[in-house]
Design brief:
Number of helices: 16
Shape: elongated
Strand content: 15-25%
Number of domains: 4
Oligomer: single chain
Structural class: alpha+beta
Largest sheet: 12 strands, antiparallel
Helix content: 25-40%
């Protein structure tokens, strides 16, 4: 009976199950893993080096929290996608046309996964240890808390999502929509899957380890002559001819005491042989030992691997591009990576402990290793109710909040902004697009323009367009006050009118207190009489007026002469006729004649 061929992908995983609140993926050797999907917190080309340092601290905190016997695996998947945008059926014609223009445009999408893996005991059988099992779930919960506390968007993958993630990695298909498996063909140079080629580029050749002597979480790059902070591997977003790039980053945390004893013994061995290279090696080991004694850094085994999918005839230019960019970072990638199939299998999610320690892993400090972790995300749409679409550097629409204060993230409480540019640079075209989007969201827009640039959009949306010339200037009546203004905000309107009157009356000279009081009282009484005009006297007002006239009549010098006519005072008050026409010429005091006349006119 012929021996069956060994299936290389058989036995990659032992089990996928949901237990104790976590979806756990077990490798063939029994190592449990929990997978988070997260968003790198640093926006590409943000120019802020501090953000890279903050994320470096978060990663270092996670490594310290996990401790010995755990591995941190991070995969950044940069895949080409086709742009799609769901436009409502009742959307405006201009909006539908806008998104139709970008339909199907290719762009790079970054999806990031953080995988926590616990090391299994190296034995023929996997033994269940309740303490280690509880410790694993506790460490996963702590990592979740760290990410939440630092405001990094993340979530645990569900069981169907983990299953799909592993299958998509095997097919190396991360485009949205359905995918299918195809035949594999492995060679020393690459893997061939259908009409595509997958090649692995390890960053480090452990026989040489061509890495920079000093490493930081970011590098400096020049844009238009200005130096800005950028990720060490930010060029992965623009690898030519590739349809998918996966950057696999693995950090294993071994037993520290065992490694320290091994390093101390190695330093003594180098010191026992008087040779220049041995002296340098001994000095380097002693420097590492001193660093470990002072800082909280850990010794870790690491592997960094870039997997690129591209057409078969484009392998050479892709390789040349990556080698050039890595050389600019001071990294010389491995040229002897002939174990392509093994590297591909070891890069599967949850396979952090499958690398061969003899030629795939190299020992370094955790702080240095974490500097190579990819930390950037591309610009995306903001979470805001006031949507305004612009295009990003990839030429795709992204929604931003131009006010800076309406979105979920408040950047300012002042919505003022300006658009500046030379003549013909497209300022009016740009603002027409912004105003259109604001109007479609029922936003009130008032514009003052001297070039008739917005007459078309005003007519399209049925707005009111007011034009003027020297012969027909725009005029206004500042003293016109509506009932609503009077009831709700008359105090502010009154102060405006008072300032206007004094500007006309006094110019730049400040008014006196008497002038201010008189003008203020006049304005108040004027609008009080306007909005509450006199209709008629109430009975109480009539009685009070009668008493007032009687008292005034007694105080006149000719009281005796008109005493017999005092009974006609009521008639004078109630009569609609002018005082001069009242029969018998009843008493009309000089001080009251004008008031009575005004009262009858008001009726």
């Amino acid at each position: 009976m012929a021996q069956s061929k060994k299936r290389i992908f058989d036995g990659l995983y032992a089990q996928l199950e949901e237990t104790d609140g976590n979806v756990v993926l077990f490798s063939a050797k029994g190592e449990p893993s929990v997978i988070f999907e997260m968003t790198n917190p640093v926006q590409q080309l943000c120019t802020d080096a501090e953000q890279y340092m903050l994320f470096q601290d978060v990663l270092s905190n996670i490594v310290q929290t996990l401790g010995e016997g755990y591995a941190l695996q991070k995969q950044d998947i940069l895949c080409k996608q086709s742009y799609r945008h769901d436009v409502p059926a009742d959307a405006e014609f201009l909006t539908r046309s806008y998104f139709k223009y970008f339909e199907g445009r290719e762009f790079t999408e970054i999806r990031t996964y953080l995988i926590i893996t616990q090391e299994a005991q190296k034995s023929q059988f996997v033994q269940y240890d309740p303490k280690k099992w509880l410790d694993f779930h506790s460490k996963v919960s702590k990592v979740n808390d760290i990410l939440a506390e630092k405001g990094i968007r993340h979530r645990k993958l569900t069981k169907p999502e983990v299953n799909e993630y592993c299958h998509r990695f095997m097919a190396f298909q991360f485009r949205h929509g359905p995918f299918s498996m195809t035949n594999f063909k492995a060679s020393d140079e690459y893997l061939k899957i259908g009409d595509r080629v997958i090649r692995s580029y390890p960053l480090v050749d452990i026989d040489e380890i061509n890495l920079p002597s000093v490493i930081k979480p970011y590098t400096q790059m020049s844009v238009n002559g200005y130096g800005i902070a950028s990720d060490l591997l930010s060029f992965l977003t623009s690898v030519p001819f590739s349809d998918c790039v996966v950057f696999n980053q693995v950090v294993q945390i071994p037993n520290q005491r065992k490694l320290l004893r091994k390093l101390q013994a190695k330093a003594k061995r180098h010191g026992s042989m008087p040779d220049p290279s041995n002296k340098i090696a001994k000095a380097d080991i002693e420097e590492v030992l001193n660093r470990l004694a002072v800082d909280t850094s850990l010794l870790v085994n690491t592997n960094f691997n870039i997997l690129v999918s591209c057409p078969a005839d484009k392998v050479t230019p892709v390789t040349s591009y990556l080698e050039t960019k890595l050389y600019e970072c001071g990294i010389m990638p491995s040229r002897t990576a002939y174990n392509q199939l093994e590297l591909f299998i070891d890069s599967f999610p949850g396979n952090a402990y499958s690398f061969n320690p003899d030629y795939d892993l190299f020992l370094t400090l955790s702080d240095a290793a974490l500097c190579f972790f990819f930390k950037e995300h591309l610009k995306g749409s903001e979470n805001t109710p006031l949507t305004t679409y612009y295009t990003d550097r990839q030429g795709l629409p992204v929604c931003i909040d131009i006010t800076g204060k309406e979105g979920k993230v408040k950047m300012t409480d002042n919505a003022n902004f300006f658009c500046i540019g030379p003549s013909g640079s497209g300022k009016s075209f740009h603002m027409n697009s912004v105003v259109r989007q604001l109007l479609e969201q029922n936003t009130d827009v008032v514009m003052v323009d001297t070039g008739d640039s917005y007459e078309g959009i005003c007519g399209y949306f049925g707005g009111t367009y007011i034009s003027y010339s020297k012969e027909k200037p725009i005029s206004m009546n500042p003293f016109k006050v509506t009932r609503e203004e009077y009831d709700l905000n008359f105090g502010e309107k009154k102060n405006f009118l008072k300032s206007l009157i004094f500007l006309i009356f006094k110019g730049s000279e400040a008014p006196s207190k008497i002038e201010d009081m008189l003008v203020n009282q006049t304005i108040v009484e004027y609008y009080e009489a306007y909005f509450h005009p006199f209709d008629s006297f109430t009975p109480d007002e009539r009685d009070g007026l009668r008493q007032k006239l009687l008292v005034a009549a007694k105080m006149e010098n000719d009281y005796d002469r008109y005493a017999e006519k005092m009974d006609n005072i009521e008639e004078q008050i109630s009569s609609p006729e002018p005082p001069a026409q009242i029969e018998n010429n009843a008493l009309v005091l000089p001080s009251e004649e004008r008031r009575l006349k005004l009262i009858r006119q008001c009726r």
